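User: I'm putting together notes for a lab meeting next week and I want to include a structural view of one of the chains we've been expressing. I don't have a solved structure, so I'd like a prediction I can at least talk through. The sequence is below, exactly as it appears in our construct file.
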Amino acid sequence: MSKKTRKFKTEVQQLLDLVIHSLYSKKEIFLRELISNSSDAIDRLRFESLTDTALADAGREGRIRIACDKAARTLTVSDNGIGMSAEELDAHLGTIANSGTRNFLESLRAAKKAADMEFIGQFGVGFYASFMVADRVEVLTRRAGAQTAFRWASTGDGAYTVEESERAEHGSDVVLHLREGMDEYLDEWRIREIVKRYSDYIAYPIAMEVEREEGQDADRRKVRKDETLNAMKSIWKKSKSEVSDEEYKEFFHHVSHDFSDPLRWVHFAAEGTAEFRALVYIPSQAPFDLYFRETRHGLHLYVRNVLITEDCRELLPEYLRFVKGVVDSSDLPLNVSREMLQDDAIIRRIRKGLVARILSELQNMKDGAAEDYLKFHAAFG
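Assistant: Thanks for the context. Below is the predicted structure for the 381-residue chain, given as structure tokens.
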């Protein structure tokens, strides 16, 4: 496959223009979005490996790596996840596949005028946040099970190129050629700070090579070695006493791509006829696509640490589709399908428990925090 140049879809170019020329207060979130994408890619590989025996070995040990090259002024985020084919590169990085695109872009334009709002990450466009700090972005990727890798590259000027390349294993490298004035994102302390703040709960190790001094006195020498930057413990598996309010809020930002703080959250473990853990949030504002037919539901379903779906409609009724969060069950089979979810007794019991806890939290808010409840009712009533 020779190098091919393609134009971005109109809505993507409009989005890039807004991202590049808008003054977002938190440019650092680009790294959170890239790490989240890497985590999702590893989750998808693990899920596909459950049914595809050819991928069984590939999905065992997920890892994410960050590399800084100060001489070349590049920052690279790599993973050994599912990777992408040439067609998937076009589909995922050349378009925004949703009929609500126009509404989303209008929301972004409105956000540009409101200094307290951040929309990067919504609508699955977190990758494009890279162009806030980079004047050129490359993606080297090889899909699991395939032999050919592909390189995608763009300067955000309306077009991108795709060509065949080489990569030793499946997964993706996202290489950011940083703009002038963005050198802070090449410093170890800055990368460590961002990962700790936004991605500490990511379930896979986020490693970076660092330089350290070892030895005593005259034998002291500088060595380079890998260090893991994140704690890797799923926040919903911790006890409530182990999680700070700030960590709860940051996980909401991660799972919902909503930068406003949630009104309330409910974190609990259920035992009995259906054992599961849940961390669910009541947002403070309605998403712009709440009334679109294709609106995704906000609950992610995990089974024994494997992400099954990010859009589990079976866990909540339609009228609670705005609730965001995670449910993790050990009672469901790992190869559970959408059809099984629709007719599974365990799912029905989980749903019953979730609805009861959410409605109870809303009642508590109404009785004890009238101001918050009025805010909720104005957004969702």
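A couple of points you could mention at the meeting. The longest strand covers residues 134-142. The CA atoms of residues 122 and 257 lie 5 Å apart.

User: Perfect, that's what I needed.
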